[in-house]
Amino acid sequence: MLSQLPNRVTSPAWWQLINWIADPLGFQDRCCQRYGDIFSLQLGGLTSVVVIGNPQAIQEIFNQDAKFDIGRANALAEPLIGQNSLMLMDGDRHRRERKLLMPPFHGERLQTYASQICHITNQVASRWQIGQPFVARSAMQVISLEIILQIVFGLSQGERYQQLKLLLTDWINMIDSPLRSSMLFFRFLQQDWGNWSPWGQMNQRKRQVHDLLQAEIEERRTIVASDRTDVLSLMMAARDEDGQAMTDAELRDELLTILFAGHETTATTSAWSLYQVHQQPEIREKLLRELDSLGEQLGDKVSPLEIAQLPYLTAVCQETLRMYPVLPIIFPRIAKVPVTIGGYQFEANTTLAPTVYLVHYREDLYPQAHQFQPERFLEHQYSPAEYFPFGGGSRRCLGYALAQLEMKLILATILSKYQLALAEDKPVKPQRRGFTLAPVGGVRMVMTGRR
Predict the structure, then answer these.
(1) ∠ CA 281-418-164 to the nearest 5 degrees?
(2) A single Gene Ontology molecular function, please (predicted)?
(3) Which of 153, 192, 305, 330 has the most CB atoms around its CB within 10 Å?
């Protein structure tokens, strides 16, 4: 039993932070090879972080989540999502907010959203031209943003809808590279000098988005519409055990959280799935046979939820999420009391960070881990500490069911109606994009025909 931080990475703290920003996956690989699957980083002026890539130790963390502050460990995200976000809450407030937000993302509500997802995907894809290259991630971003605006915000037309669409895209793209993402990690770059500074531009976009969301919330409060099924309307109607509704500030910040947690991640994973499916023709053919087995005209005779239950389609999406985690680590945990994890005794205020990347590439769990093999999910059931693309414990992503549904239906809708090919014959690697990871160049593709 050890009480000191384990396996300290010995390079200077500033160098560790630069590597963490510029190459978080390669940096983890190098550290794991040298120090093992539990090691300690000192990320510049940030606190020490114990990175954990051992499934048994990660399960111990999930089992003891009540002993950790998790919202406090996510303070870096506050400038983007606001202080009233579920991500930044702990204790009773987190439990209350999570309970209020849960219903729109599960159960029968998903049936309502499924056909909308297919319709939006068709709308966007129908604008592609045969022989004209496009960037898959950008196209998926258009689809996922439209899903957020229509299904979550409840907007599909009007001036506010058009303004939000432009502003949200512009705001998100301000952190689209490792260099531009660095202002999220270095406080000295967070200087608001108006439009003369990147941080000032970020804050201006945030204020404009806030104002539009506030106007939408205020307008909704004056309208009685019991038949609305969008997430915002359901959030506004929700009441806690004391009969209290969510405040405007809570609603606004939760909408931004859903935007950043759902829009970026879905666009990225959908682009990766298109990349892998078209890199390996046999996988595409197997998927098409499975889709065609449900009926000749996808969506006409078959319900979207039936499509989403197809086993090989599910396995392809699961393997995409395994190989391309959108976060280099899941939510860090700050110990409130001394805890024992993986044979180490950690003092209170120690930050522990389970790494989805190192676990998902363990050869003892995933043989030939660098190869895209959907069959592994048809042959094996993985535990919540061996496969956790949406996090785990008390902080498993609230919208994971909707995210999986989106990913499956976007891929199925595109494959069933369009013939695509990769526009470049070269490997695509992930790079940092804000707090997330995305394909370098966005995966260039071209439509070769229609099915």
Answers:
(1) 120
(2) heme binding
(3) 330
CB 40 within 8 A of CB 450: no
User: Are the C-beta atoms of residues 420 and 447 closer than 8 Å to each other?
Assistant: yes
Q: 1, 9, 2: which is closest to 50 by C-alpha?
A: 9
pLDDT tens digits along 6-38: 889 999 988 998 898 889 999 999 999 999 999
Radius of gyration of the chain (CA): 22
Mean pLDDT to the nearest integer, 43-54: 83
Q: What are phi and psi of 391, to 5 degrees?
A: 80, -170
Residue 262 lies in a domain: yes
Tell whether residue 397 is among the known ligand binding residues.
yes
What three-state secondary structure class fits 295? Answer: coil
Question: pLDDT, tens digit, for every residue of 129-152?
Answer: 999 999 999 999 999 989 988 988
Q: Could you tell me if residue 1 is inside a domain?
A: no
The tens digit of pLDDT for each residue in 201-220 reads: 888 888 888 888 888 888 88
Q: Token pair for residue 312?
A: 């090989």
Task: Supply the range of the domain harboring residue 217.
Answer: 13-450
Integer Cα distance of 359 and 269 in angstroms: 18
181 and 190 Cβ atoms separated by less than 8 Å? no
In a domain, 5, yes or no: no
With beta carbons less than 8 A apart as the criterion, state whether 352 and 50 touch: yes
Is residue 414 assigned to a domain?
A: yes
Characterize 173-202 residue by residue with b for buried, 16 or more Cβ atoms within 10 angstroms of its Cβ, and e for exposed: ebbbebebbbbbbeeeebeeeeeeebbebb
Tell me phi and psi for residue 430, to 5 degrees.
-80, 150
The four Cα atoms 398, 400, 401, 406 give a dihedral, to 10 degrees, of 130
Angle separating helix axes 24-35 and 13-22, nearest 10 degrees: 130
Tokens of 63: 């089992």
